[in-house]
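protein under study:
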Amino acid sequence: MANRYLYLARHGAAIDEGELSETGCEQAELLGKRLAEHPITAVHHGPLPRAARTAEIVARHLPGAQVRTADLYGDYVPAAPPRDELPPAHAAFLNGFTDAELTSGPPLAAAAIARHAGPADVETHELIITHNFLVAWFVRHALGAPEARWMGLNQGNCALTVILYRPEVPPSLMFFNDMSHLPQDLRWTGFPPALRM
């Protein structure tokens, strides 16, 4: 068994949750430049335009990396614990989703963890361009936190999170929501206004 370096990034800023904005394209370009020196061999992304375009821009800086799309890396609710076990704000948040949305996400989240969250056969460096919820789900899993803890773990657009999975030791959260590659005016997009710094 060998180390797995899993790089996770939320897509760039988008226009009404659709295509990337000019800001989002610039964020993606800077993320790609930051990752250019890393031996990333695969870029996985979800099917929505904002994730696909971010992956396309970032991949230009990663020669030889295979770009793959799958629903596994899409925008979905990874877990929906019983409302009576949640703080009122989190329960109210989940009330904004349909039953179908709340039940379709957990199998995808479990499959994403099974595919990526553990040591590899050979040292592996892979990037997942996804959405806020799935990055939070991987972080929650790496820390061994309760399933509901993915809520409230927010990521900025094109912020970088890196998890190292090594044989026989717990995962290491190396970076979380790191925006050091973004200038101040491009940071904190993707956060509710109350959380922006």
Observations:
- The beta strands are 4-10, 42-45, 66-69, 124-130, 160-165, 172-178.
